[in-house]
Amino acid sequence: MKRLTTILAVLACFLLGATAWAGSITIKGSTTVLPIAQKVAEQFMKEYPSISISISGGGSGNGIKALIDGTTDIADASRFIKLKEVKRAVNNGRYPVPFAVAYDCIIPVVHPSNPVSNLTIAQLRAIYTGKIRNWKELGGPNRKIVVISRDTSSGTYEVWEKKVLKEARVYPGAQLQASNGAVAQAVAHNKYAIGYIGLGYLNKHLKQLKVNGILGTPATALDGTYPISRALYMFTNGWPKGDVAKFIQYVLNPHKGQKLVKKVGYIPLY
Q1: Number of C-alpha atoms within 13 angstroms, CB side, residue 97?
Q2: Mean pLDDT of 34-45
Q3: 10 Å Cβ neighbour count for 39?
Q4: Of all helices (H) and strands (E), which one includes residue 233?
Q5: Residue 255 and residue 236 share a domain
Q6: Cα–Cα distance for residue pair 18/12, rounded to 1 Å
Q7: Which residues lie closer than 8 Å to 111 by C-beta, 6 or more apart?
Q8: What is the mean pLDDT of residues 42-61?
Q9: Are 117 and 216 members of one domain?
Q10: Averaged pLDDT of the chain
Q11: Which of 117, 126, 244, 245 is an S-S bond match for 131, by CB 3.0 to 4.6 Å?
C-alpha cells in the first residue's frame, strides 16, 4: 500500500509538471488574417504539441483592443495600428510591436451572373456613398445595387475607407457584415450585390472585379499597380519572448509559415 501511494505521488508530480511545462498562446483580431493564423497554428501545434493555441476573429480593432487590455498574446490586424491606439497601449503599460506576415488585395466582388467586370475607384466610391444605386448606370441590369460592407471595427473597412471612400461615410442603406466570410456569403447569394473581401476569401461562387482595369493578384499587389493592396500584421506586446516568439518566427519562416500563407490564398513576404 505504501509503495502504491509513493507511485501515485510520483505520478501526480509528473502530471503537474507536465501541465506546468505546457504553453498556451491566445490570438484575437482580424478575420482577414484569421485563415493564416488558423493554418499556421494547426501546423505549429503538430510540431510543438506542448503548446496550445486559441484563435478568434472579431475584427482588427477588437484584436488591438484585446492586446491593449492584456487579454491576448497576439493581435491579428489587416491594417496598421492607429496613433490613438498606441497612446492607449502605452498608458496601459503595453508596447505593441508589429510584424508584417503577408500581403493582400482587397477585392470587389459580385455575383458570377453580373456582366460588370471592371469599376474605377471613383465608381466604387459612388456606389458605397449612395450616389450610384442602379447597375444600369454601370453597364449592368436595371436593378438596384445591394451594397455589402464591413463594419467599422474591421481593418478591411478602414483600408477601404481610406483608399476607396477617401474618408467619406458608407451610405446608410449598406448592409454591414462582421467578417470576410459573411460578405462572401451575402454576395454569393444575391445576384445584385457587391461587396469587398481579402484575396484569401475569393472562391468560385464570386466574380472578382478589376479596379481601374487592373486585376488584384499577387504580382499586382507586390508591384503596387493594384490600387487597393495592403500588408497584414500580427502585433505582440513588446518584443516577443518564449512561445509567442517561437510562433512569430514560425509564421515568418520562408519554408514554414510563409508557404502556408500562400496555401490559404494570400501573398507571402518573400
Answers
A1: 10
A2: 97
A3: 18
A4: strand 229-237
A5: yes
A6: 10
A7: 187, 188, 190, 191, 192, 193, 206, 207
A8: 96
A9: yes
A10: 92
A11: 126
- How does pLDDT run across 123-161, given as a tens digit for each residue? 999 999 999 999 999 999 999 999 999 988 899 999 999
Average pLDDT for 73-101: 97
pLDDT greater than 90 at residue 12: no
Same domain flag for 160 and 237: no
Give the CATH number for residue 244: 3.40.190.10
In a domain, 156, yes or no: yes
C-alpha cell at 231: 500588408
Cβ pair 236, 97 in contact under 8 A: yes
Same domain, 33 and 95: yes
| Cα gap 58→211, rounded to integer Å | 28
CA–CA dist 38, 92 (Å, integer):
29
In the three-class reduction of DSSP (H, G, I as helix; E, B as strand; rest coil), residue 180 is classed as helix
Instruction: Take residue 83 and report the three cell numbers written for it.
Output: 496613433
Region of residue 242 (left: phi > 0; alpha: psi -120 to 50; beta: else): left
Asked if the structure places residue 11 within a domain, the reply is no
Closest CA to 231 of 109, 81, 85, 72: 81
22 confidence band (pLDDT: 50, 70, 90):
low
